Amino acid sequence: MKNLIRLSMFLSLAMFMFSCDNDDDNNDSVVPTLEIPDTYEFTRNGSSTVSFSGQVTRLSQSDELYGALNDPSDFETLDAMFNGVDGSSAGFSNDDLNGTSKIIGSKTSASTLQGSAVDRQAFNDMITEYTSEVVPNFDLPYDANANVAGVYPGTSYRLNAAGQEIDQLFFKGLIGAFTLDQIINNYLHPNQLDSGDNIVNNDDDVLDGDSNYTKMEHKWDEGFGYLYGHLDEMGMGEDLATAGSSPSGEGNLLMKYFKKVDEADGYQPGVGQVVYDAFIAGRTAIVNKDYAERDAQADIIQVELSKVIGYYAVHYMNDYVAKLSEGNIGGAHHSLSEAWGFLFSLKYTNDGMDEPFMDRNDVDSFLANYMSDFNTMDIGVLTAPASAPDPGMIAIVEEAFASKGHPLN
């Protein structure tokens, strides 16, 4: 009898174990993973989960601000366009851009990694200098010998007394301190993506209020929007389908130069598709709760967008040298102004390990000591070869990227 009882218990246990294994093999709680789509389109319950309207607004504001920095604008107008008034955007001719919480200055040099109150003040100082020095001499000829600001003869380049074109310093610096910084050091970084309860809520598909997205999904979209936001998110259509193969190049910030780098005769043809695919794959990883893959895709974006800054810092330093040798002094001042802005932007690059490709203090020191007055520039500080006791900045920038395993083409 005891043996029969033992046999009965054994058979019951075996049936129980088989039953458990069978349940595991058909576990209804397993969530299917999303396959990576061809375009940046994601839905939940048949409706889009993608939203970056704030970035669309700020990029549109930047277009008007660029125009105003090429007109005899007054301080109040430019200050309102950059900093807003009483916490709201203001100063734009397109009234849809006014009265919002979207303000360019509040997102300039504002990331958790590279934010700097000193740098934000530098942009305010440029607005002051433009309106107090350049605008009063808007139609007068520039005179380097007399330290008089004005328009360089035979060109449309309006220079300050130091021979600098303020709008180029401002906007090329804004490429790094605003658009690049917000993408790679803020919205695509765990400091934003994983803040608060974002991981738990994303794991459980907890949506952000009445929105159709989780906070983590939205943070990634906002990073995407700072590069692709000139594609109206409500009607991207064919533009979205070709955003990788043919970046739009719209606006005056990062996308403009991203397209130049991607072009057939650019520095890195095909990088447009690489970055677009990484944005799509990273967003897919968030839907699939695969945060290691998300961060791996963010690393790709951080490095490739940072290289855009490196390419054009070198490009405009070389262009300055070439124009100077041709006797095109006005064009040389213009190119050196663009070089200054891209050098400034190097502080906001990210090597994929949360370090800039060039040290912030080194960049600031170079700009202050060697590029504060273009009229007295020593061309050697740009062109001295890497083998020289004191290499020039062109060689230094190239080495900064090469030493981290990401050489510039």
Largest sheet: 2 strands, antiparallel
Total helix count? 16
Report the helical percentage.
Answer: 40-55%
Average predicted local confidence, pLDDT: 92
From the alpha-carbon coordinates, what is the Rg to the nearest angstrom? 26 Å
Instruction: List the uncertain runs.
Output: 1-28
Morphology = globular
Number of domains: 1
Strand order of the largest sheet: 1-2
Extended strand count: 4
Strand pairing plus helix content: what structural class? mainly alpha
Task: Provide the β-strand percentage band.
Answer: under 5%
Give the SSE order as H and E letters.
HEEHHHEEHHHHHHHHHHHH
Distance between the termini: 85 Å
What would you note in describing this structure?
The protein is an all-alpha fold and 409 residues long. It has one domain. The protein is 54% helix and 2% strand. It has 16 helices and four strands. The strands form two sheets. Strands 1-2 form a two-stranded antiparallel ribbon. Strands 3-4 form a two-stranded antiparallel ribbon. β1 and β2 form a beta hairpin. α5 runs parallel beside α13, α10 packs across α12 and α12 packs antiparallel against α13. The longest helix has 36 residues. The protein is globular and about 70 Å long. The N and C termini lie far apart (85 Å). The N terminus is likely disordered.
Layout of SSEs?
Layout lengths: L1 H24 L17 E2 L2 E2 L4 H16 L6 H9 L33 H18 L15 E2 L6 E2 L6 H22 L2 H4 L4 H6 L11 H14 L8 H5 L12 H9 L8 H17 L3 H36 L2 H17 L14 H11 L9 H4 L9 H10 L7
Antiparallel strand pairs: 1-2, 3-4
Helix pairs in contact: 2-3, 3-4, 4-5, 5-8, 5-12, 5-13, 8-11, 10-12, 11-12, 12-13, 12-16
